[in-house]
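Quick one: structure for this chain?
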Amino acid sequence: MPARRIALLLPGQGSQHVGMGRDLASARREAAEVFERANDVLGVDLRRICWEGPETELTRTENAQPAILVHSYAAWSCLPEELRRAVSVGAGHSLGEFSAYLMAGALGFDDALRLVRRRGELMARAGTVRPGTMAALIGLVEGGRLTARSAKDLLPELLVRGGDPEALMLERGLEAVSDAGLIEGLVDEVIANNPDGVASVRAGDDKPLNFLMGQVMRATQGKASPAEVRQALVAKIRGA
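Got it. Here's what it folds into:
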């Protein structure tokens, strides 16, 4: 019988809630020790924030990120050693990546905790220190000149060196493709090259649609609006 293999998926920001980890720490000494250690490392009563709130304090990104990491690690610490050894793959959503590194032993607890605390502080600062920059970046996305994916690529550079988002977008050649004729031509090409997927979509199966969208997005180097590409594909396939 083959050995059991387990994949571990760790949550990201947004999964926090007041009371998180309290019952676990009450039932298991290992979990209680994780919360105690977190307080010592950060010099902040993170345990109280997690267990008692208020919610407004817990949801502040500089608190939420270490809180989720600590809660994840507390749960991990309570798992049987045999089960932990059976984990062969780890992944996480955004912040959860740090939790995955911690579970894998690539980061120590103290270092991981300090990292996500600092990460949260910097993310909070991004929305307050340069509100004009953030507003301009969001404006480019909402105005259809920049895709959300490209905005995400620009954000780290803007946070480090500042500057004008529009100028940086043009410098990096990331302005969104808005030429309807160009998009329509690419959609036609993708449809012609993928008859099986097109037939499935025409029959009511939307699963191949994501693949077809990916082909068009790849051709535009991610600069087209996914919503516009999807709309064009559906109109061409189901309207034909």
